[in-house]
Amino acid sequence: MKLVLFQSEEDKRLRRLVVSLAAPRFDLSFSSDIIDRLNRQYEDNEDTQSSKQDGQQLLLDDSQLAKINSIYKDLNPDQKVAVSRCLAAKDYLMILGMPGTGKTTTIACIISILVTLGKSVLVASYTHTAVDNILIKVKQMKLDFVRLGQQHKVREEIKPFIVENATCHIKTVKELEQFYERTNIVATTCLGINHPILTKKRFDFCIVDEASQITQPVCLGAIRCANTFILVGDHYQLPPLVQSIHARNSGMDISLFKLLSEKHPSAIVRLRYQYRMNEDIMMLANELIYGHRMQCADKAPRVLNLPHFAVFQEQNQGCALDSFIARVISPSQPVIFINSDSIPCPESTTGSHIHNEYEAKLVAVILQSLIECGAEPEDIGIVSPLRQQLKTIEYSLRKTCFSNLVSRIEMNTVDKYQGRDKSCIIVSFVRSNNSGNVGELLKDWRRINVAITRSKHKLVMIGSKETLSFSLILNELLNLIESKYWIIPAEKSWLTHFEKGKQLDLVEQTCLV
User: Fold this and answer.
1) Where are the alpha helices (DSSP H) in 142-215?
2) DSSP 191
3) Is the Cβ–Cβ distance between 237 and 446 less than 8 Å?
4) CA distances (Å), 39 to each of 27, 32, 33, 36, 65, in order?
5) Which residues neighbour 389 within 8 Å (Cβ) at sequence distance 6 or greater?
6) pLDDT band, residue 502 (cuts 50/70/90)
7) What are phi and psi for residue 462, nearest 5 degrees?
């Protein structure tokens, strides 16, 4: 990488950090001083506190410390370390947020604390959704900010903060410059950094979310605008999307987050306490990907809410078919893999597109049963590595009485589901053939990691065990699931059930709503 156009002293420093890969610096005395006071909870009872950073006095009065403490005290141990290391960082820091560990909350808290300390912050991410998710939490903290971006790409509750709306009352250039100067929080996507406000103002900190999904050139545009940058991401999930094979082979899909993390692991803070997944679901990623680092943040049960499940079981006692379905959707079994080899369910090819009609029908049967038992369509997500399979599943659903509910069920590819979650996730792996061809997508362990960590309470996977075992990561996953007795064979009668359109009264009532 060459940054030949970057000639300022700050650019030369940045070049040392991201090209020469010089080690980042930390001033631990500054952060330790603040954290010690928070931990003492003002035992000194001093009217005014002071702290040194870079030879300058940073005055902190009791109201500032009280505001910081109101945020800091509710954080978990890893989040507190993240805050402390951010305050100490003079160059950069990486925050590795494992799935469901509260990355967005941590970012919002760091922003609030930095602004309380009189710092300016540029917030950036690759997607508008991620930027707005952070700003919604910042707004809840009653902090003022400016959002750069087009109206139609910004969430409704954030639109009043778009720069054009926030400055509509300003009449002169001087007033506009003063507005830019006093704005301490500016948020934009990494591709929106050419706004005039970013040429007029240098920030103390730049926080980049989704940093492990952003190519290095795109990330550099944002971090050039600040003295210190904080990269937040997880390089154990999907990397930047680079379509060119030549570019990928040349390292274009290696994010700055991954590059710096591997060169300077001491500059990483890991968020391990996860708030999303049921313990059994967490165990899969913990065993396969994260080396047992993840922990449940609390002991509260994370169970799928199916208010009519007991009625479903009672009405179908003695029915072998429905007893199998009951096991699949049971809230007491958070993880289940349905092995389609027993039917079997061969994949099909239409042109260059691969899909699996049989798996699509199984998804429809499971979805029907979940809704019969009281699950809300908005709480269910359908995931597949192949977009054509999603179209096949949607077609299958529209052949049931659920045609009016399809729009309420979020269906997307694994890649598009990164950063999202649902109470129940149904994964259709699609590939089922005699040659053991799983395709390139299912060989990527990072994609499998994303697929199995989107669910909060229930994870249902459908696929051919025989075919999927030819993927190294999926073979490990299947062996782990099998050791827990979480694999069940698909029943041919399920497809008959689908073709006949069997529906309980509860479903009929749902469809009439």
Assistant:
1) 163-166, 173-182, 196-200
2) G
3) yes
4) 19, 10, 10, 5, 11
5) 354, 355, 356, 359, 360, 428, 430
6) very low
7) -125, 130
Reported residue count of the chain is 513
Per-residue pLDDT, 33:
74
Question: Letter for the amino acid at 512?
Answer: L
Long-range contacts of 61-68 (CB under 8 A, 24+ apart): 64/116, 64/117, 65/34, 65/37, 65/38, 66/42, 67/112, 67/116, 68/34, 68/38, 68/113, 68/116, 68/117
Q: How far apart are CA 106 and CA 143, in angstroms?
A: 15
Cα→Cα distances 27→38, 52, 55, 88, 223, Å: 18, 10, 11, 5, 20
Ranking 278-282, 494-498, 500-504 by mean pLDDT, the lowest is 500-504
Of 242, 261, 269, residue with least CA distance to 253: 242
- Is residue 334 exposed (0-12), middle (13-18) or buried (19+ Cβ within 10 Å)? buried
Nearest-angstrom CA–CA distance, 60 and 48: 6
Could you please report the per-residue DSSP string of 453-490? Answer: TSEEEEEEEEE-HHHHTTSHHHHHHHHHHHHTT-EEE-
Strand stretches in 109-242, DSSP E: 121-125, 146-147, 185-189, 203-208, 226-233
Helix (H, G, I), strand (E, B) or coil at 205: strand
- CA distance to 25, 321, 392, 431, 488, per residue, from 442 (Å): 40, 30, 19, 9, 21
Q: CA of 478: how far to CAs of 89, 221, 336, 454, 469, in Å? A: 42, 42, 11, 18, 7
**Are 112 and 87 within 8 A, CB to CB?**
no
Measured distance CA(210)–CA(234) in Å, rounded: 8
DSSP state of 447: H
Amino acid at 262: E
- Give the residue-averaged pLDDT of 318-329: 76
C-alpha separations of 60 from 33, 90, 335 in Å: 11, 20, 50
Using omega within 30 degrees of 0 as the cis cutoff, is the peptide bond preceding 334 cis? no
| Model confidence band, residue 26 (pLDDT cutoffs 50, 70, 90) | very high
- Tokens at 127, concatenated: 């997607």
Of the candidates 341, 393, 392, 342, which has an alpha carbon nearest to the alpha carbon of residue 366?
393
Class of residue 201 by CB neighbours under 10 A (exposed 0-12, middle 13-18, buried 19+): middle
- Band (pLDDT 50/70/90 cuts) for residue 35 is confident
Tokens of 361: 């029908």
Burial class of residue 251 (count of CB atoms within 10 Å of its CB; 0-12, 13-18, 19+)? exposed
